[in-house]
Design goal:
The complex is a heterodimer of chains A (about 350) and B (about 475).
Chain A: H1 6-42, H2 47-55, H3 61-78, H4 80-89, H5 91-113, H6 117-143, E1 148-149, E2 152-153, H7 163-187, H8 190-221, H9 223-230, H10 234-258, H11 263-283, E3 286-288, E4 292-293, H12 294-297, H13 301-328
Antiparallel strand pairs in A: 1-2, 3-4
Helix pairs in contact in A: 1-3, 1-6, 1-7, 1-11, 1-13, 3-4, 3-13, 5-6, 6-7, 7-8, 7-11, 8-9, 8-10, 10-11
Chain B: H1 7-22, H2 26-46, H3 49-82, H4 85-119, H5 126-155, E1 160-163, E2 166-169, H6 172-176, H7 181-209, H8 214-249, H9 251-257, E3 272-279, E4 284-291, H10 294-300, H11 322-352, H12 365-391, E5 396-398, E6 402-403, H13 404-407, H14 413-444, H15 461-471
Antiparallel strand pairs in B: 1-2, 3-4, 5-6
Helix pairs in contact in B: 1-3, 1-14, 2-3, 2-5, 2-7, 3-4, 3-14, 4-5, 5-7, 7-8, 7-12, 8-9, 8-11, 11-12
Classes of the chains: A mainly alpha (about 350), B mainly alpha (about 475).
Chain lengths: ~350, ~475
Amino acid sequence: MDFNNPQELHHVLATVWFLIVGLFMVFYVVLDGFDLGVGVLSLFVGERRRKVMMASLGSIWDANETWLVVIGGTLFGAFPLAYGTVLHGLYIPIILMLLGFMLRGVSFEFHELSKRKTFWGAMFGVGSLLATIAQGFALGGLLNGVNVVDGVFAGSIWDWFSPFSLIVVFGVVAGYAMLGSTYLIIKTQDDIQANCYRRGQLLAWVMLAVGAVVTVWTPLQFPQIFARWLSTPNRYFFAVLPTLAGLSFFMLLRALKRQSEVAPFVWTMLIFLFSFAGLAATWYPYIVPGSVTIDQAASGTSTLVFMLIGIGMLIPVMITYNVYQYIVFRGKIDPDAEHAY
Amino acid sequence: MDWLHNPELLARAQFGFIALFHILWPPLTIGLALVLFGLEAAWLKTRNVFYYHQTRFWTQLFLINFGVGVISGIPMEFSFGTNWGPFSTASGDFMGNILGFETAMAFMLEAGFLGIMLFGWSRVGPKMHLFATGMVALGSTLSAFWIMVANSWMQTPAGVKLLDGKFVITHWFDAVFNPDLPYGFGHMFTACVELSLVVMAGVSAYYLLHRRHVDFFRPALKWAVLALFIVAPLQIFIGDAAGSALADSQPAKLAAIEAHWHTNKPGAGAPWALLAIPNQAEQKNDWALEIPDGLSLIATKTLTGKVIGLTHFKPDDQPPVWTPFYAFRVMVAAGVFVAFMAFWTLWMLWRKSEHMSAARISDNKWLLRGWLLAIPAIYAAVEAGWLTREVGRQPWIVYGLMRTSEGVSHLPASAVLWSFTMYALFYGVIGVAALVFASRMIREGPSFGDPPHPPITAHSAPARAHAKLATTEGP
């Protein structure tokens, strides 16, 4: 690499930021994924179980959701063109997602303080489901291609709505519910835990089905991806990720059957990780699939360097206090404990 | 109802609405976090359960605010992308970077330790808990700092040049420490501290008026008043300095704030309009109650100093006048009122007793009612302050460089109207619910449970203080 060549330097920095934003995405999807998943699952249980489920998130949901804010901030800083056009193109799902977040966020508190526990508990579930569905549509819309011409969104406000995005929604709901179930397996016991083992089997198959559809649909829809995946030697590299994902799926089913406590969460997380890496590798160097590359979207070189020094150094710190928080609140939720502030 | 079909006005109204709603909540958490840190440190040092109970009581208020503050702030960050795409693309090099710093450095710090601060009392040691509280306080202050860096830069953009419609940074230091930042951040941070102290005083006054938990809330009122005696005048001083700085950095805003239409002639002072009926169409005031030379004195500290009038700018470059003019006056009135309350209360404390600690301010009902009134007044001041600052910046999104109309996303009006309606609906419900819960919490009063980290010795003085407190409870 020739760092004296400004364009090459910019490209390297943009790639580094692509990886960092990707890393934040993985943190977000796994952490807030199980968080939202628990919320979706809480729609199908009574008040007693919902109380335990919400208590399992009480101390961490805010930190989990913060990763999304970090993604927003870093995307805005490192790839302003992507930030400005994607959020415009996905206007409706993004707003719906934010409304869902607000609803579930305040519900935590109001559920605790209010005498109408059933109502705010239900709002918590509804908000979680709304945010999850909206994220599914946003992801589906993004993978379908966001129409950007000359740095301005040029599509219609309904572009994100398609049969393909509908399928992705199912995948995201099932995936988050799976993460939620496996998290609850770690945090709960008795009947709640037993239910999660049972439900996990079904959710895993839905995830697999959606993953398969997306994997087949994407190359059929985009000839350049078809060429990319199936040319030699690319096909050998690209084959690794679905293979690993498939293996993780198999291990997940096994761990659920054996009733392991931590393993199901780890395998689900790995499925997400491999799928996500697959998507990133498929679309690189595009940050907005099909229309904007990372070089086009990235900020100026000095901004990327400035951010890398400032935020890059903070990444280990951010991870440290997240890990510490999970250590402090480790262990099973006591279903009878008063969850008082 | 033309504005219903104007996407730019709708987008502005929506952002303004979100911002005005959001700004109601973080100031209390920013200021109260510092108070909580102080109270908890006192508890750790003295092991007097009184401080522990104080900490727990104000934490509840903190919590209700924090939840709504975080929740209502997230849409703001995303608004830049959803509704202000061209602005985001053009300013990403700076604005995005700063918001990235805010989230990674401040927001994450706050979120990382909040759980421990709220739920970790029996899970971590007392020192670690104090540390967590300190990190939450530091995180929220840092957050305010970065947000104000971004906002100040929009007011006084420095260190950048416009190249092909994009802001390219030429000097990082100049851009971050732009001319408005010391005033912008200083004024906002002081507002946070002042607001928290006023809420503390007002809530304490409520209990004293009802003769409930008198021994618990009289000290709280006294602490708040003593601090306000310094903070409230300081805020007026900072505000005045900020106003003078406007004469150089944003003269059109200053002229709009004062409904000052014509630049005063050399040798003649500009009058200060106490009240006025501004008429923007005819570029004059239809009626005004004026103090001769007042504006020159306020803005330039001389009787005949030159203050540029609005007619100096083309009508297209003028901010609307009514909103900044009256919002500013509401803010000043509220700030002066709080300072007056602090002085009056301190005077009462001083006059009634040789030792302030023995004073019985709780007997003076008018004084206590004044503090109750100070709560809505200080909130009005914060809202009015933002209106003055942001409406006064118009028609620019980045002052003097980029017009608001150039920064807005080209969305269908119906889409913006829809999201606006949804936000308004949600914020309405959330805001009302938060008020209901806060008032219920205040009606119920503090609880006096034992701390999870017990006092050092079971029969020491603090334990007796606790026993005494328990007996003086109740109406």
